[in-house]
Structure formats: structure tokens, C-alpha cells
Amino acid sequence: xxxxxxxxxxxxxxxxxxxxxxxxxxxxxxVKDIEEKDxxxxxxxxxxxxxxxxxxDLKKLEQENLNLTxxxxxxxxxxxxxxxxxxxAEKTSEQIKLTAYQERDIIISDAKKNANxxxxxxxxxxxxxEKESDMLRRNMIVFKRRLKDALSTQVELIEDIEKIEI
Length: 166
What we know:
The protein contains two helices and two strands, in the order ββαα. The chain is an all-alpha fold. It has one domain (6-163). A two-stranded antiparallel ribbon has the order 1-2. Strand 1 and strand 2 (10-11) form a beta hairpin. Helix 1 (13-47) packs antiparallel against helix 2. The longest helix has 112 residues, at 52-163. The termini are far apart.
């Protein structure tokens, strides 16, 4: 029985095709051989029915014919099995591709969801930071104004002290 190498999608098609070509060539040779032997049997039966050697030859040819017929049947079964194996390998590869496409779609969908979540979180953080920055700016303005007022009050106090004569 012939063994085939496995490739990504099943058996190596080139090896299988080579084997099928060999099987076809053998079957054709056997069919031709059977036809020739059938002709020979017919000729021998016409020439001399009484000749024992001829009968023996005919029996041998008949046996060979039966053997060749069984071999042809065997090769036909092998060919059918190979065809089934190729079809099974093709179906399996299609199933694997379909599964891979489905997994790809799930991964892409998850990645998009994660990307959207990350972007939304970043936007929220940016908005929070912007609000905090605005609040600090306003607080700084208020602080400066109060500091100026406090300093202004101190300056007025110093001026008032200078006006008082001791």
C-alpha cells in the first residue's frame, strides 16, 4: 500500500496524482493484457479442442484473467479510497479555514472594543485633568488678587505708620 506525505491541507496532491497515474497505467495495461488473453483463449478454443496442452494453457490463461480481474477490482477500490481521502482532506481544510476566519473576527471585535474602552478612558482622564487645570488657574488668579490686596493693605499700613509722628 502506498504511503503519502501530509501537507498543510491533507495529503500531498502531487504524490496522490502520481500514484493515481501509476494505478491508471497499470489498470490500462491489465485491461489490454486481459483483452489479448481473451483473444488468445478464443483462438485456442477454435484451433484444437482435443489438445490437452491447449486446454491446460486455456485454464492458465483463465486463472491469470481472474487474477488480473481481481487486481483491477483492488486498484479500483484503492482509487475510490484515495478519492474519499482527498475529499475528506479538502473538507477538513475548509473547516479549518472557516474556524480561523471566525476566530479572526472575534479577535478583531475584541480588539475594537478594547480600543474604544481605552480611548474613552483617555478622554475622561483628559477631561478631568483639563477641569483640574482650569480650577488651579482660577485658584492662582484668586490667590494673586488676595496677595496683592494683602500687600496693598500692608503698604497702606506702612504709609499710615510713617504719617504718625512719634
